Amino acid sequence: MELVLKYFQELTEMQQAQFKQLYELYLDWNSKINVVSRKDIDELYLRHVLHSLGIAKVMQFQPVAKVLDVGTGGGFPGIPLAIMFPETKFHLVDSINKKLKVVNGVAEALELDNVSTTHSRVEAIDDHYDFIVSRAVTAMPAFVGWVKSKVLKKSNHELKNGILYLKGGDLTEELKDFPKATLYNLSDFFEEDFFETKKVVHLPIKYKG
């Protein structure tokens, strides 16, 4: 929890309380349905919560925004972002239903009324969003194929509507066909070694009407 406060000092008391609850909630849920590895549970705030909030260092979502979290797993990055931006609507999608049981349980315990979930492959989602977020569920070319028809036309943010993707390592080959992609190094925002090669990739997507 101290890690979150270290980098996000403007949190309300409610947000601080919600972030503080995450560890106990995931510890409890993980004993029933394994969504976070045993090693990672001990470093939940570093490897999952703060990593998810890397997107918040790049983007301040507007209250009216709609954000789709694809392959959310145990709720990352969607749940931490929903705490950070309580007036933004987050739609968390995963093809594995038992993972969403955990997400729904956590969201309910935290009283996050800006979170909805769907058990589905993203291709079957029939809606449009300002931004589509994810944590490295697949290579970017495949991901773009899944979501390119789901981006809203009108941009209301400093960055153009599209994808905000958490990914690590050398992305040169993966992004060679996407010259408009912008990479933000999380090591510019967070000093912990874990973030040394981690990035947020912003890729604007043109509306396909």
Fold and architecture overview:
There is one protein chain. 34% of the residues lie in helices and 19% in strands. It is an alpha/beta fold. The chain has a single domain (2-204), classed as Rossmann fold. The protein has a seven-stranded mixed beta sheet with strand order 3-2-1-4-5-7-6. The model has no long low-confidence stretch (mean pLDDT 95). The chain has eight helices and seven strands; from the N terminus they run αααααβαβαββαβββ. The radius of gyration is 16 Å and the shape is globular. The longest helix is centred in the first third of the chain and has 18 residues, at 13-30.
Notable characteristics:
single chain; 34% helix; alpha/beta; 19% strand; 8 helices; 209 residues
End-to-end Cα distance: 43 Å
The CATH architecture comes to 3-Layer(aba) Sandwich
- The tally of helices reads 8
So what's the CATH class?
Alpha Beta
Radius of gyration: 16 Å
Overall shape: it is globular
Q: What is the string of helix and strand elements?
A: HHHHHEHEHEEHEEE
Roughly what is the average pLDDT, rounded to an integer?
Answer: 95
CATH fold-level topology: Rossmann fold
- The CATH homologous superfamily is termed Vaccinia Virus protein VP39
Would you report the number of β strands?
A: 7
- Sheet with most strands: 7 strands, mixed
Low-confidence sequence ranges: none
Supply the helix-strand structural class.
alpha/beta
Number of domains: 1
Physical arrangement of strands within the biggest beta sheet = 3-2-1-4-5-7-6
Q: How much β-strand is present in the residues?
A: 15-25%
Proportion in helices: 25-40%
